[in-house]
Design a protein that fits this description.
Blueprint lengths: L1 E5 L4 H13 L4 E6 L11 H4 L4 E5 L5 H11 L3 E4 L6 H6 L2 H21 L3 E7 L26 H20 L3 E6 L2 E2 L8 H10 L4 E4 L5 E3 L1 E2 H14 L4 E5 L4 E3 H12 L6 E4 L14 H7 L7 H14 L1 H8 L3 H9 L3
Bound molecules: nicotinamide-adenine-dinucleotide (NAD) and 2'deoxy-thymidine-5'-diphospho-alpha-D-glucose (DAU).
Length: 339
């Protein structure tokens, strides 16, 4: 089989490529990525050594280039990770989120319609369901929860999901969607909470926690996300949405303190800063459907996953130090200046 993985130079897409090369060595993987600030060819250095892998620099919203690639590769499966993915950036500049996350998805599906496909899989997010109150731990997001978005990022992801379901119903395109909770693990860009805290704590720099630190996220080790996507795109029912999560809820302060303890760094590094506008309070996934239909189970609990992640950042300092030394410095200065 030939599988096009879009956004494969990013965090989850990169991990997914390694998962595919390890478990399906006979398949051919084509990574399509435009290498935005979040895309990094260093992440794919190991994959480049494989004869079953190739990289193509291309924007998912560039219709001509995407169609030319499909013409050449005639993929069996397309799995779409390509996205602008950071909520804070979507507050500063929403437009690129609409272009990549919505229009890019449409261009890919148009190419799938023209050239034929076994499956188009859309990598979605639990953020499309909005948030849950902090004082109702009995509530979870199911696949039937209403879409109720808070940020330009989540609104763009919800629009893409709706478009995917529309292409299924109207054109009979064989699609599936997964909606996952927060991921963490290797190759995570240091603008996101966990890698930001690890890399700053290692340098004994202050650790910005938005608001009171009570917001809750439902954390999943990235390899478990990869195994779930793999199952759904190969065996999941067409036209269906599957939620992915493993009941690993923690508030942000707990997450930061767990990392500090793993690194042996003091809690005095924590600084409470101005809250994110529209900050979602709690995400919590009900993964019953994927467990019952496909037998998926997460393999990594939060404490083990955090230990593995911290160790990865200790062992791969050149990967993240190169990022911190580039445009990221200006990003951090601008984003956190008035907090
Ligand atoms: P990321 O920001 O680390 O990587 C995104 C990748 O997409 C980068 O390699 C970037 O270069 C590429 N890209 C961006 N715009 C592109 C374009 N126009 N054309 C081609 N490539 C483009 O993101 P991530 O955290 O790996 O997230 C991947 C996907 O998973 C996204 O769709 C995101 O919405 C979804 N998701 C993420 C999480 C999470 O916790 N990170 C959880 C659930 C779902
Ligand atoms: O739930 C899935 C989503 O998880 C994905 O769809 C997104 O692509 C991904 O970025 C992530 O979104 P979040 O906004 O939850 O992740 P982030 O790492 O930006 O923030 C996690 C929590 O930590 C959130 O409550 C905000 C808080 N935070 C974040 C940063 C960057 C801080 O307190 N301080 C920070 O500096």
């Amino acid at each position: 089989m030939t599988i096009i993985v879009t956004g494969g130079a990013g965090f989850i897409g990169g991990n997914f490529i390694y998962y595919q090369l390890k478990h399906y060595p006979q398949d051919r993987i084509v990574c399509l990525d435009s290498l935005t600030y979040a895309g990094n060819l260093k992440t794919l250095e190991g994959a480049m050594k494989s004869d079953h892998f190739c990289f193509v620099k291309c924007d998912v919203a560039d219709r001509e280039a995407v169609f030319a690639l499909f013409e050449e590769e005639k993929p069996d499966i397309v799995v779409n990770f390509a996205a602008e993915s950071h909520v804070d950036r979507s507050v500063e500049n929403p437009e690129i989120f609409l272009k990549t996350n919505i229009m890019g998805t449409q261009v890919l599906m148009d190419a799938c319609r023209k050239y034929g496909i076994l499956r188009f899989h859309q990598v979605g997010t639990d953020e499309v369901y909005g948030d849950l109150p902090l004082d109702r731990p009995d509530l979870f997001f199911s696949e039937d929860s209403p879409l109720h978005t808070s940020s330009p990022y989540s609104a763009s992801k919800a629009a893409a999901d709706l478009l995917v379901l529309a292409y299924s119903r109207t054109f009979g395109l064989p699609v599936s969607i997964t909606r996952c909770s927060n991921n963490y693990g290797p190759y995570h860009f240091p603008e996101k909470l966990i890698p930001l805290i690890i890399t700053r704590a290692l340098a004994d720099e202050s650790l910005p926690v938005y608001g009171t630190g009570e917001n809750i996220r439902d954390w999943l080790y990235v390899e478990d996300h990869c195994s779930a996507i793999d199952l759904v795109m190969r065996k999941g029912r067409e036209g269906e949405v599957y939620n992915i999560g493993a009941h690993n809820e923690r508030n942000n302060l707990q997450v930061v303190k767990t990392i500090l303890s793993a690194l042996g760094k003091p809690e005095s590094l924590i600084r409470f800063v101005k809250d994110r506008p529209g900050h979602d309070r709690r995400y919590a996934i009900d993964p019953t459907k994927i467990q019952n239909e496909l037998g998926w189970e997460a393999q990594t609990d939060f404490d083990t996953g955090i230990r593995k992640t911290v160790q990865w950042y200790l062992d791969h300092q050149s990967w993240w130090k190169e990022i911190l030394a580039g445009d990221y410095r200006d990003y951090y200065a601008q984003m956190y200046a008035n907090r």
